[in-house]
Amino acid sequence: MTAFRATTEPERKGTLAADVFLGRQPIVGKHRELFAYELLFRSGQPNFAAVVDDVAATATVIDTMFSALGLQQALGDRRGFINVNADVLMSDIVEILPPSRIVLEILEHVDLTPAILARCKQLRARGFQLALDDVVDLKPEHRVFLHHVDYVKFEIAGQERAALAKLVRDVRAHGARPLAEKVEAVAQYEDCKAIGFDLFQGYFFARPTVLTARRMQPSKMVLIRILRLLAQDPDNSTLEVAVKEAPDLAMRLLRMASSAAFSPVHKVTSLRQAIFLLGHQAIGRLVQIMLFAEHGGTKLGSDPLVQTAAVRGRLMENLAVALGRAHLREEAFTVGILSLADSLFGQSMAELAELLNLADDLRAALVARSGALGQLLNLVEASESRDAKSLAAMADLWGDQDRMDFNRLQVEAIAWASRL
């Protein structure tokens, strides 16, 4: 998920665009493939009461997200889950959303009245999908709604396995799909999958299953060799020889160089020409991102780990510039991209830092979250969290900077990652 924090000072109550949190958290399937995003709309600071009404806050953030990014960049080809309370659900706000792309997620505090049920039937008839949020037990009012929603999201924390398994069976019997929320460990994910969940939300997919060495695919080792070669500023002929050992990379370079952004007039006719047009910096970034893609040319945008890493890299670069540390922008990008490498390779970050021969400041940021780069990484990681403690920590790290600046930087990072 990506998020921004906005001001909560009483004198800014009327400034809706500056009084909301905007977030994007992946929802994945049972093979950890990207299924959808939840777009998180929250008003005010977590430690304070809401400073604007939910209808206005949701309307403002919908406008911010879809106007600034556009639906394709915000969601790609996936659906977006949007939190709605009773007022939003009953209002005309939802009418502007594309039904085929949006799941309306009914918050847990909404009274499931006959009027709400009638509205749900109406919205489903128009093509919207619906979800019940944060369900702990299936109360009678929930059961009435099960035939009229598509997803039921369960908070798994503190739930007994047998009781949770029964809830999953009951939901499936009514034709809805159960979704496990706040899955933060691989063991939780495996257990939920075993009892019948096939949709999951939480950052378990960004955590290594094991922290012991795993044999890397040959293609990954070639990319690592190219990355290390680029650090030595090789001539283009030497780089061309190395790139030819990675056909996937060569094809991506040719495709990228052929785009209008790099070659608006002439057609690219060779790999050497592509390398010349793109330059070492762009090639290095593509190599770093490809390290997160599965072997076989998987589309980069289809993997939530790749998307999260790409957004982190670009956002950290943006933050370095915004915070007066422009001299660290390249290092910041690299730290952001590599911050999930332990999850990809199943090795400790210390081992990977050694394998990649990282400089001391990059190593300190990735292994210990220390130094200027570590502080930037802490800020980005805090922005991805849904809990109040992390968001409060994020506010401290961002300091007195304009909160909307952070929003703009994240919007740009999401847009950049969506183009990969």
TrEMBL record:
Domain named HDOD: residues: 216-404
SMART domains, A to Z: EAL (SM00052)
PROSITE patterns, A to Z: HDOD (PS51833)
Superkingdom of source: Bacteria
Spans traversing the lipid bilayer: none
InterPro entries in the record: dGMP_Pdiesterase_EAL/HD-GYP, EAL_dom, EAL_sf, HDOD, RNase_Y/CdgJ
Full protein name: EAL domain-containing protein
Species the sequence originates in: Acidisoma silvae
